[in-house]
From TrEMBL, chain A:
Residues 4-233 form the ABC transporter domain. Keywords: ATP-binding, Nucleotide-binding, Transport. This is ABC transporter ATP-binding protein. It comes from the Bacteria. InterPro entries: AAA+_ATPase, ABC_transporter-like_ATP-bd, ABC_transporter-like_CS, MacB-like_ATP-bd, P-loop_NTPase. Belongs to the ABC transporter superfamily. SUPFAM superfamilies: P-loop containing nucleoside triphosphate hydrolases (SSF52540). One of its GO terms (molecular function) is transmembrane transporter activity.
UniProtKB/TrEMBL annotation, chain B:
Residues 425-436, 444-454, 473-482 have a biased composition (Polar residues). It is a multi-pass membrane protein. Gene3D superfamilies: 1.10.287.1490. The chain crosses the membrane at residues 21-38, 596-617, 638-659, 690-711, 763-783, 993-1015, 1049-1070, 1090-1110. PANTHER family: INNER MEMBRANE PROTEIN, MEMBRANE COMPONENT OF PREDICTED ABC SUPERFAMILY METABOLITE UPTAKE TRANSPORTER. GO terms for cellular component: plasma membrane. Residues 596-712, 999-1115 form the ABC3 transporter permease C-terminal domain. Keywords: Cell membrane, Membrane, Transmembrane, Transmembrane helix. This is Membrane protein. Residues 27-223 form the MacB-like periplasmic core domain. It holds the Pfam family MacB_PCD.
Length: 233, 1125
């Protein structure tokens, strides 16, 4: 079942006389429960696509169907509700609230949710059962990213969007984070969209969308995705 | 063009971060404006006054001589090296009335000076004629005087006004101001009601004094100095020392002058006296001579009188003899007359006899003749009877014939015939009787004839005898007549003598009378002479005494002159001018406020800009790292931020200093001008001192802050800098250790709490900023409260009478009683009370002050008129005999407390010592209250009323107007004042001060606004990523706002609480330093003011948060999350 459908999505920035086409007509779909990778070089427009998909940004034109609704037509408030109820975000720099402990950072997201999961349980699931009351500064990068993922998961979203989740992490830690994401997709049946510039991890995804100069250059569907552990890069 | 890129970067940074740049600019501008503006006000006040003094050539020193000041003194002063100019003038305090009006005022009349103490003429022109004057602008306005009005002056003392002034009516030609009177206060005087209401300037020639009363002096170099400064005081003191040096000698010289004048005067008096004495002596001797002459004359006329008296007596003697002779002659005549008379009477007897015999004879003759006649008549009758008889007989015969005839007749009737016969018979019988009677008659007649003849013979012999007697009588009668003639002759001679005698007698009487009057005249002359003599003796005695007295007087005067002591000078500087000092105190007070008030303000502003700069440097961490990595030196990198900060601060300071120093002092001094009406144009020069001080501090703070932050950043390695700053560690806060509270907080509150306490700097900045603004506003409102408390309390709670009627100077008991009666009867006046109210000097230790000395004549229910009460406890105080009650402020000026002893000195009279029994709440003027019993004990006499206090019902201004003039129409009333007028004046003054308060409140509000804006701005930009994150997490805009506002609300509340604390302290400080001597400000801030300042602060916070909302909304999630920059 198709969860996401982008149709001819364009994002054009105009400052003065310079027109920048960040996204220049993108079409793709993602099935429910899929682990999708959006891969491209820096500046290819992949983050813009993710931001549009996550309701953080709006497309200049085109349609973005999520679970059958065209969110491109929504106003800021509807988008906020969309982010709140349907989306879980994982950032490259974690973006935890430094003043809150791990469990509090999760709780922060739960405050506003309709049917959240238990914060501590989610944290235990991501392997931070013993770091619940630590402040972000007291956690390593990987641990912080786990908190970030836990925060996204605890909202129990329809869609988990990750922007270069391993970008700031070392290889091993990055691998374990990817594993966590993959497990989340497989075990919980969540649709996960990950942005990366790392082509090497393409085999672990169900669907790989390659973007070049604001356009989709190739969409590959992996019938048998490989577990992360088996992928080396 | 080295490092061109760096400069470009700076300019671009400024352009990009314009809000931040502007916020630093404005907060610095605001801080500097307020700081330098308020600080400079003190100096500007002094400069304004100094300019006024310089422009009007206001004297630096003034010399008053107890013996007056002569031209010689003036020249000596002019010759002093430290004196630039000296000018003598005259002044005198007088009582003044506008022509046609009742009100009396004490007025200082001054002569116009040529060069010093120039009057600023605001209307009309300076007086030029002897009957013209210029009137005090303030006084003119208070009493609606205008040019052309006439003022009538009187001396107010026993002395004549003409001793000092030539005229007593002056026409107003101009209205003006004097630098000697900056404020509305005009000082005190020993006449009238004791307080001077204004001044008059008249030309010098209007004075009749021959020596100056004062000399104005311009001290050398003093003009260059700013008034009220120490260097000015020192400069003037040098000249003063010189004056002190010559004082002794000049006073001696002045004494000599006076003595010379006096001796001259005495000599001329003595001369006059001698002249007069000689004149008097001459007059006396003349009088004596006149008296002697008179005496001689009296003696002479007495002698004449005596001789005339003798003559008169001789004449009288002669007259007396004459009378004797006359009388004897008269006797002789009368005896002769007696003889003649007896002879005559004998003769008359004889004659009578003869006469009677004669008449007998005649009788007899007559009888005879009658008898003859009778006889004849009888004869005649007989004849007639015979005739009748014959006739009858004839008739009878006829009848017989007729009978006979008738008998013959045939027809004759018997009857008739009978009848006829009968008649005939009767007739015949009758005729026969008649014949018989006739014959008897004839016989009788014949006998009578015979008798008559015999009588005739007898009668003839008697006649013969009678003739013989008659001849005899005639002879003796002749004899008698002869002697009678002789006597008649003698009688005539006697009558002649008698007449002569009588004439002599009259003459003698006249002479006697003349003599009598002459004698009386002489007596009168003698009495006159005696009187004259006595008078002469008396006046001689008197004259002698007079001479002695005069001689003694001359001697006394001579002694007095030689005993005369030399006078002294009072050398006064400007500090002895009340308004000069008061104004200086005002300036000092503003200075005091200026030291604390703007300092807090400035501190807040400096801290805010410091935070902003710190934030900026921290934000640009990565860029710093990049620059460093590129190889720029630390100095260059720091320079960017320093230049940025300096640009904002320097321009901000410059604008702030100019605006602040121009606007704030102007506003404040203009407000003061409402009270110091004598001040000229407000001077607000830019003062480098305060500009530099304020800018220096501002720039210093910002530069230091920037440098220290840069230093901190620059110490790190470029690589570290390129990486995002390690987020500030989350920490557990104290509150978490109190699970009781912590557990009860919702998650979001926990987060808020942690956030709040995590950024301690921001936390304190916020509290200090909000608290500071709140405190400033509170002080602003509190100042207003304190000032309005004066009139609220003073005129409604403490002074409870409504009218004070001043008794006219010299009004008697009767007039006073009538006035009281009249007042008691007047409608709307509910009660009256007599009070003694005078101005006295109080002294305690070394402190002195002047105060109103109030003694009610009756203590009963005095609190209906003035409420004496303790300010703190509100307890009523009673006047007793143990001591006086002092006004609170008066006591603090004197440094006296209950139980202490103070000295009361009234006018030139002696002083009394008295104990202070209690202090009473009082806000205006110094006051001292005493019970009448204590007064009597101390002064030995009962207090005499000077004023009558009246309480009224609620009355209108119209009623007061008419009542005022009605009261003044009463004989005993000299002045009338309404408490409502004072209250109005006070309220007007409060309204003026409101300007200062508004300045404070507006500035504080601005500060609050800017501080809140800045801090919120910092807060948001600091937590941009965090806020973007929660936005991404799906927080609605409002929820994002709440996330921030929650902290702001708490900080605002904490700030307000801190502000109230700071405000109360600051208010107390400002009140105590800003108070003038005559006024006590209210000590407390009203509840409303707390409410207002709190509401304003909250209002600003709400406004800021509202603005923040849009800023929050504008946060771009994508941009914010892209990098940590």
């Amino acid at each position: 079942m198709e969860l996401i459908r982008l149709e001819n999505v364009k994002k054009i920035y105009q400052s003065g006389e310079v027109i920048t086409k960040a996204v220049d007509g993108i079409d793709f779909t993602v099935e429910k429960g899929e682990f999708a990778l959006i891969i491209g070089a820096s500046g290819a427009g992949k983050t813009t696509v993710l931001n549009i998909l996550g309701g953080m940004d709006t497309a200049t034109s085109g349609a973005v169907f999520v679970d059958g609704e065209d969110i491109a037509q929504w106003n800021a408030k509807q988008l906020t509700r969309y982010r709140r109820d349907d989306i879980g975000f994982v950032f490259q720099f974690y973006n935890l609230v430094p003043n809150l402990t791990a469990v509090e950072n999760v709780e922060l997201a739960l405050q506003i949710c309709k049917n959240p999961l238990d914060a501590e349980e989610v944290l235990r699931e991501v392997g931070l059962g013993d770091r619940l009351n630590n402040f972000p500064a007291q956690l390593s990068g990987g641990e912080q990213q786990r908190v970030s993922i836990a925060r996204a998961l605890a909202k129990n979203p329809k869609l988990l969007l990750c922007d270069e989740p391993t970008g700031a992490l070392d290889y091993q830690t990055g691998k374990s984070i990817l594993k966590l994401l993959q497990d989340t997709c497989r075990k919980k049946g969540k649709t996960v969209v990950v942005i990366t510039h790392n082509l090497a991890i393409a085999p672990m995804a169900d669907r790989v969308i390659e973007i070049k100069n604001g356009k989709v250059s190739r969409i590959t569907k992996n019938e048998k995705p490989a577990p992360v552990e088996n992928i080396e890069w | 063009m080295k490092k061109k890129a760096l400069y470009k970067d700076i300019i671009r940074t400024i352009r990009r971060t314009l809000p931040r740049f502007l916020s630093i600019f404005f907060i610095v501008a605001l801080g500097v404006a307020f700081y330098s503006g308020i600080r400079v006000t003190e100096k500007d006040m002094k400069i304004t006054a100094d300019r006024q003094f310089d422009d009007s050539s206001f004297m630096d020193l003034e010399v008053l001589g107890t013996l007056g000041l002569s031209d010689q003194n003036l020249r000596a002063i002019q010759d002093l090296p430290g004196v630039v100019k000296a000018e003598g003038y005259y002044s005198v305090d007088t009582i003044c009335q506008k022509e046609g009006e009742q009100d009396e005022y004490v007025i200082k009349v001054m002569s116009a000076a040529d060069e010093l103490n120039q009057i600023e003429v605001t209307e009309g022109k300076m007086p030029s004629g002897q009957k013209e004057c210029l009137v005090d602008e303030h006084f003119a306005r208070e009493n609606q005087l205008k040019i052309g009005d006439i003022l009538v002056l009187s001396s107010g003392t026993e002395d004549d006004l003409s001793d000092t002034l030539k005229e007593n009516r002056f026409k107003i030609t101009g209205i003006g101001k004097s630098s000697a009177y900056l404020s509305m206060e005009r000082g005190s005087s020993s006449i009238g009601n004791g307080s001077i209401s204004g001044f008059l300037v008249v030309p010098k020639k209007a004075f009749s004094l021959d020596v100056y009363t004062e000399i104005y002096i311009t001290a050398k170099d003093a003009k260059k100095e700013l008034a009220y400064t120490d260097s000015y005081d020192d400069t003037v003191a040098r000249t003063r020392d010189q004056l002190e040096d010559i004082q002794n000698q000049q006073n001696k010289a002045r004494l000599q002058e006076i003595q010379d004048d006096a001796n001259e005067e005495i000599a001329s008096q003595e001369e006059t006296f001698q002249k007069e004495k000689n004149q008097a002596l001459k007059e006396l001797s003349d009088a004596k001579k006149q008296l002697e002459d008179a005496k001689a004359q009296i003696d002479a006329s007495e002698k004449t009188l005596n001789s005339r008296q003798k003559e008169l007596e001789d004449g009288e003697e002669e007259i007396k003899k004459g009378w004797e002779e006359y009388n004897s002659g008269l006797e002789q005549i009368s005896s002769a007359k007696e003889k003649i008379k007896s002879g005559k009477s004998a003769l008359e007897k004889e004659e009578k006899k003869l006469t009677s015999s004669e008449s007998q004879i005649q009788q007899q003759e007559k009888t005879l003749e009658e008898s003859e006649q009778k006889v004849k008549q009888e004869e005649t009758k007989l004849e007639t009877s015979r005739q009748q008889l014959e006739e009858k007989e004839k008739t009878l015969e006829q009848l017989e014939e007729q009978i006979a005839q008738y008998e013959q007749l045939p027809d004759a009737s018997e009857e008739t015939l009978n009848e006829m016969k009968k008649q005939l018979s009767e007739g015949q019988t009758a005729a026969q009787t008649a014949r018989q009677q006739l014959e008897a008659g004839q016989k009788e007649i014949s006998s009578a004839r015979q008798q008559v003849t015999e009588g005739r013979q007898k009668l003839e012999s008697a006649k013969k005898q009678l003739a013989e007697g008659k001849s005899k009588i005639n002879a003796s009668r002749q004899q008698l007549e002869a002697s009678e003639n002789e006597i008649t002759k003698q009688e005539a001679a006697l009558a002649q003598a008698r007449q002569t005698l009588q004439q002599n007698e009259t003459k003698a009487a006249q002479g006697k009378k003349q003599l009598e009057s002459a004698k009386k005249q002489l007596e009168d002359a003698k009495t006159e002479y005696q009187k004259g003599l006595k008078e002469y003796q008396e006046s001689e005695k008197e004259a002698r005494e007079e001479f002695e007295k005069a001689e003694k007087k001359i001697q006394d005067a001579k002694d007095k002159v030689s005993d005369m002591e030399k006078g002294s000078w009072y050398i006064l500087n400007r500090k002895q001018t009340q308004s000069y000092v008061e104004y200086g105190e005002e300036a000092a007070r503003i200075g005091a406020i200026g030291k604390v008030f703007p300092a807090i303000f400035f501190l807040v502003a400096a801290l805010v800009s410091l935070t902003a700069m710190t934030r900026m440097v921290e934000e640009q961490r990565t860029q710093i790292g990049t620059m460093k990595a590129l190889g720029y030196g630390g100095r260059d990198i720091a320079a960017k931020y320093l230049i940025y900060g300096m640009a904002a601060t320097v321009t901000g300071s410059a604008v702030g200093a100019v605006v602040g120093e121009k606007v704030l002092p102007k506003i404040i001094i203009e407000a003061y001008k409402m009270m110091y009406v004598g001040l000229g144009t407000v001077q607000v020069p830019l003062e480098a001192q305060y500009t530099l001080m304020a800018s220096g501090i501002a720039i210093g703070v910002v530069v230091l802050a920037t440098m220290s932050v840069c230093y901190k950043e620059l110490r790190e390695k470029p690589a570290q800098l390129m990486r995002p700053a390690a987020p500030k560690e989350g920490k557990r806060i104290l509150l978490e250790r109190i699970p009781f509270i912590w557990k009860r907080l919702s998650f979001i509150w926990k987060a808020t709490m942690r956030n709040m306490f995590r950024y301690k700097k921001r936390f304190f900045m916020m509290i200090f900023g909000i608290g500071g603004s709140m405190a400033l506003m509170l002080v602003g409102f509190g100042l207003k409260d304190s000032i309005s408390a004066i009139s609220d309390n003073q005129f409604h709670r403490i002074i409870r009478y409504d009218i004070s009627v001043g008794l006219k100077e010299g009004a008697g008991d009767k007039e006073k009683e009538e006035l009281i009666q009249w007042l008691s009867r007047k409608d709307k006046i509910t009660s009256v009370r007599e009070v003694r109210e005078t101005t006295v000097d109080l002294k305690a230790g070394r402190e002195t002050c002047s105060a109103s000395f109030i003694v009610p004549l009756d203590l009963k229910a005095f609190d209906k008129y003035i409420s004496l009460q303790d300010r703190k406890t509100g307890e009523r105080e009673k006047l007793g005999t143990e001591g006086v009650i002092l006004a609170e402020k008066t006591a603090s000026l004197l440094g006296a407390e209950p139980g202490d002893e103070i000295t009361i000195k009234e006018g030139d009279d002696g002083s009394v010592k008295v104990k202070v029994a209690a202090l009473t709440e009082n806000y205006m003027m110094n006051k001292i209250y005493m019970s009448p019993e204590l007064y009597e004990k101390l002064y030995g006499e009962a207090p005499e009323a000077t004023n009558i206090y009246c309480c009224t019902e609620n009355v209108s201004a119209d009623w007061e107007n008419t009542a005022g003039s009605q009261i003044l129409d009463q004989d005993g009333a000299g002045s009338v004042s309404f408490v409502s007028d004072d209250a109005q004046t006070m309220e007007d003054m409060v309204a003026n001060l409101n300007i200062v308060v508004v300045v404070l409140i507006v500035s504080a509000g601005l500060l609050a606004f800017v501080v809140l804006y800045n801090l919120n701005n910092i807060n948001i930009s600091e937590r941009r990523a965090e806020l973007a994150t929660i936005k991404v997490l799906g927080f609605y805009d409002l929820e994002v706002g709440e996330y921030v506002y929650r902290e702001n609300v708490i900080l605002t509340i904490l700030g307000i609480i801190a502000g109230i604390g700071m405000g109360i302290l600051l208010h107390r400080y400002v009140i105590l330093t800003a108070e003038v001597d005559l006024i006590m400000f209210g000590r407390s801030i009203y509840m409303a003011s707390y409410v207002y300042s709190t509401l304003l602060t909250i209002g600003f916070a709400v406004m800021i948060n509202f603005l923040m909302y849009f800023q929050l909304k504008k946060i771009d999630m994508v941009e914010s999350l892209k990098s940590t920059e």
